[in-house]
Design brief:
Strand content: 15-25%
CATH architecture of the largest domain: 3-Layer(aba) Sandwich
Structural class: alpha/beta
Largest sheet: 8 strands, mixed
CATH superfamily of the largest domain: ANL, N-terminal domain
CATH topology of the largest domain: Rossmann fold
Number of helices: 20
Radius of gyration: 24 Å
Bound molecules: 5'-O-[(S)-butoxy(hydroxy)phosphoryl]adenosine
Length: 633
C-alpha cells in the first residue's frame, strides 16, 4: 500500500478523497488480497442508515493479516507477548507460527459446531490465544464479540445474551498488576443467566484450579492442539459482519457496534500506515487492551495487515513500578509507541527517575488516544519520553468509527499540543450548531459530525438498527453525529473538547451515567441517584455520584463501600464512583428532568456560579447539596 510522504502529498490525497472518493478508495483497496473484486465501491444513504463499501467483493481478512505475508515474512515475528510479571519469559510468534495457531484454533471452533455468522464471545486476558481466537473467528466467518476482562458477570451476561453467543472463550484467570482475577468464576456466574451458550472454551493461563461443568467446558489446549493446521479461509462478502464491540451511551443499555469485513480492513491498514508512518521493520507497541476498539484496530488488525511486529502487553504501567513501560521500550527497541493520556499522567506523577533509568532512543513516533490530552501531559510526553525529537500524534476516533479519523501524520503534520489537527484523507468532519446548521469557517466551535461515509464506519447496532439510526444519524439530518464537542482554530485544526452527551470518559473508557445510576439504584437503600463527571488529575474525568437514601446514613464510609461494591458487581470496577455524596434531593426541573449542569458545577467545586436555579422545582435542594459538600466519601 502506498503511503503519504509529505504534508503536500497529504493535501493532494485529501483533495482527491473529497472530489473522487470512489477512485480514491478503490486505489487503496487494490493492494489487498481479494477472492473477488467489488462491483461498486460505495453505495450509501445516511437516512437508513445504509452504507455499503466494496459491495460484491469477496475476501477473508485473515488471508490479508496472515497468509499474504507468509512468502516474504513467514519467519518475521508477528506478535511479541510480554507478561504482567517482568520475570515471566516473553513469547514470540512468527507469521508462520501465527498461521498454524490461527488455523488450529479455527478448526477447534468448527469442531465445537461454530459456523459462519455465529457469534462467539471472547472474555480473555491479554494472551496470544486471545489474538488467535479473534483471528480464528474471522477465519471461519464467526462474528467475534470481545468483552473486556474487567467487566462484571452481569455485564458479560448482558453482552452474551444481546448477541446470543453460541460459544464463550475464556481462561482460568490472570493477574493484572498485583490483582488476581478469577475469570472462570465470573464467567460461570454470568452463564447462569445465558441459555444461548452451549460450550465454554477455557484457556489454561494462570494454572489455578477452576470449577468445571462436564459436557459444557472444554480446555482450549486439549482441543486446539489436536487440530489440523489447515483451515481454508471462509469466503466472506464485503459487508458480512466481522465483529461486534459493545460501548456505552446515554441510555442504560450498552450498544453492540457492528463492523463489517472489507471496509474495516481497508481502513485499519490505511490509517495504521499513514498516521504512524510505519516503515517495514519497525517495532510497534500499542498499550491498549484488546477488549477495546484500540486493541482491535491497532494491536491486531491494522498492524498485522501491514505485516508489522506488534507487542501485546498483559500488565499495567505501574507494576511492579512506574518504569515498566520504559523498560519494555528499551527491551524491544520500540520505534512506535501508542498509549493513553491517563497512563501518561499517572507516570508523570511518579517522577522522572523511572524514565531516566531506560534507553528510549529507539522511539520515533509517540501516539495518544482515548480522551483529550491536556497541554501539560502532552509536553511531558513530548519532552521526557520523546526527548523533543519524536513525532507526537494525538489521534481522535471512536469505537463507532473503527479507525483513527483526525490526527497528525507522524512527522508530516505540524503539531499543536491538545489538537488532533487535521482529518485523514477520506474523512469529512463538520461542525454544527444546536439546530444542525453547519458552522463554516475557522476560529469556530460546535458539535462534531461527519458528512460523508468512510469505510470503517459503524453499520448498525446489533439487533436494533433503529437505535443506530436514532443515536448517530437522527440528531442532525444526513450526518453522523459523534457526541463530541469540537473547536476549529484559525488554521483549520481540530481540537476535541469532550463529550456533549451524558457519557463520562474515565481513563479513556466511555461510561454512560445512566448505566452507573442503574447500578447504584440496585442497592436497597437507594431511592434515587444522579451521576456526573468531574475533572480528575489522572483519569481525565472521575465519577461523582449524588445519592438519595431511604434511611439516615450514619456511617458514610460503610455506605459508600456498599455502593461501590454494587457498581463493581453490576458493571465492573472501572465504573466505581470516585466520590459519593448523600443528598436530601436532586435539582429537578418542573418536568422532572435532573439539572446535571448544576451537579457538575458542585462536583467541580464551583459553588458560587451555579447559574439560574429559579426554574427548579425546589431550589432549596441546591443549598442542601452545597452545604453538605464536605460530607463526601
Ligand atoms: C470517545 C470515544 C478511540 C479509541 C478509544 C476510545 C474520546 C478519543 C480522543 C482524542 C479527545 C478523544 C471522544 C470520543 N476521544 N480519542 N484524541 N482527543 N477525545 O474509544 O471508547 O469509543 O470513546 O473518546 O470523546 O467520542 P471510545
Amino acid at each position: 500500500m502506498k503511503k503519504i510522504n509529505s504534508f503536500a502529498e497529504y493535501k493532494d490525497w485529501y483533495q482527491k478523497s473529497v472530489e473522487h472518493p470512489q477512485d480514491f478508495w478503490a486505489d487503496i483497496a487494490e493492494t489487498f488480497t481479494w477472492k473477488k473484486k467489488w462491483d461498486s465501491v460505495l453505495d450509501w444513504d445516511f437516512k437508513g442508515p445504509n452504507v455499503k463499501w466494496f459491495d460484491g467483493a469477496e475476501l477473508n481478512i485473515t488471508e490479508n493479516c496472515i497468509d499474504r505475508h507468509l512468502a516474504e515474512k513467514g519467519d518475521q515475528t508477528a506478535i511479541i507477548w510480554e507478561a504482567n510479571d517482568p520475570d515471566t519469559e516473553h513469547k514470540k510468534v512468527t507469521y508462520k507460527e501465527l498461521s498454524v495457531q490461527v488455523n488450529k484454533t479455527a478448526n477447534a471452533l468448527k469442531s465445537l459446531g461454530v459456523k459462519k455468522g455465529d457469534r462467539v464471545c471472547i472474555y480473555m486476558p491479554m494472551s496470544l490465544e486471545l489474538s488467535y481466537t479473534v483471528l480464528a473467528c474471522a477465519r471461519i466467518g464467526a462474528i467475534h464479540s470481545v468483552v473486556f476482562a474487567g467487566f462484571s458477570a452481569k455485564s458479560l451476561a448482558d453482552r452474551i445474551n444481546d448477541a446470543t453467543c453460541e460459544l464463550l472463550v475464556t481462561a482460568d484467570g490472570f493477574t493484572r498488576g498485583s490483582k488476581y482475577i478469577d475469570l472462570k468464576a465470573i464467567a460461570d456466574e454470568a452463564l447462569k443467566s445465558c441459555t444461548c451458550t452451549k460450550n465454554v472454551l477455557v484457556l489454561k493461563h494462570s494454572g489455578k484450579s477452576v470449577n468445571w461443568q462436564e459436557g459444557r467446558d472444554v480446555w482450549y489446549g486439549d482441543i486446539v492442539d489436536k487440530q489440523s493446521d489447515v483451515c481454508p479461509a471462509e469466503t466472506m462478502r464485503a459487508e458480512d459482519e466481522l465483529f461486534i464491540l459493545y460501548t456505552s451511551g446515554s441510555t442504560g443499555k450498552p450498544k453492540g457496534v457492528v463492523h463489517t469485513t472489507a471496509g474495516y480492513m481497508v481502513y485499519a491498514e490505511y490509517s495504521f500506515r499513514n498516521v504512524f508512518q510505519y516503515n517495514q521493520g519497525d517495532m510497534y507497541w500499542c498499550t491498549a487492551d484488546i477488549g477495546w476498539i484500540t486493541g482491535h484496530s491497532y494491536i491486531i488488525y491494522g498492524p498485522l495487515l501491514a505485516g508489522t511486529t506488534t507487542i501485546m502487553f498483559e500488565g499495567t504501567p505501574t507494576f511492579p513500578d512506574a518504569g515498566r513501560f520504559w523498560q519494555i521500550v528499551e527491551k524491544y527497541k520500540v520505534n512506535i509507541f501508542y498509549t493513553a493520556p491517563t497512563a501518561i499522567r499517572a507516570l508523570q506523577a511518579k517522577g522522572l527517575e523511572w524514565v531516566e533509568k531506560y534507553d528510549l532512543s529507539s522511539l520515533r513516533v509517540l501516539g495518544s488516544v482515548g480522551e483529550p490530552i491536556n497541554e501539560e501531559a502532552w509536553q511531558w510526553y513530548h519532552t521526557n519520553i520523546g526527548k523533543g525529537k519524536c513525532a507526537l500524534v494525538d489521534t481522535w476516533w471512536q469505537t463507532e468509527t473503527g479507525g483513527i479519523m483526525i490526527s497528525p501524520l507522524a512527522g508530516l503534520t505540524k503539531e499543536k499540543p491538545t489538537f488532533a489537527t487535521y482529518p485523514l484523507p477520506g474523512i469529512q468532519p463538520m461542525l454544527v450548531d444546536a439546530d444542525g446548521n453547519e458552522i463554516k469557517g475557522n476560529g469556530v466551535e460546535g458539535n462534531l459530525c461527519v458528512k460523508f461515509p468512510w469505510p470503517s464506519m459503524i453499520r448498525t447496532t446489533w439487533g436494533d438498527h433503529e437505535r443506530c439510526k436514532q443515536v448517530y444519524f437522527s440528531t442532525y439530518e444526513n450526518k453522523y453525529f459523534t457526541g463530541d464537542g469540537c473547536k476549529r482554530d484559525e488554521d483549520g485544526m481540530y481540537r476535541i473538547t469532550g463529550r456533549v452527551d451524558d457519557v463520562i470518559n474515565v481513563s479513556g473508557h466511555r461510561i454512560g451515567t445512566a448505566e452507573v445510576e442503574d447500578a447504584i439504584n440496585s442497592n436497597d437503600a437507594v431511592v434515587e441517584s444522579a451521576v456526573v463527571g468531574y475533572p480528575h488529575d489522572i483519569k481525565g474525568q472521575g465519577i461523582y455520584a449524588y445519592i438519595i437514601a431511604d434511611r439516615k446514613i450514619d456511617n458514610l464510609e460503610a455506605f459508600a463501600a456498599e455502593i461501590r461494591s454494587s457498581v463493581t458487581s453490576e458493571i465492573g470496577a472501572l465504573a466505581k464512583p470516585d466520590k459519593i455524596q448523600v443528598v436530601q434531593g436532586l435539582p429537578k426541573t418542573r418536568s422532572g428532568k435532573i439539572m446535571r449542569r448544576i451537579l457538575r458545577k458542585v462536583a467541580e467545586g464551583v459553588t458560587d456560579q451555579l447559574g439560574d436555579t429559579s426554574t427548579l422545582l425546589d431550589p432549596t435542594v441546591v443549598d442542601n447539596i452545597v452545604q453538605t459538600k464536605d460530607l463526601v466519601n
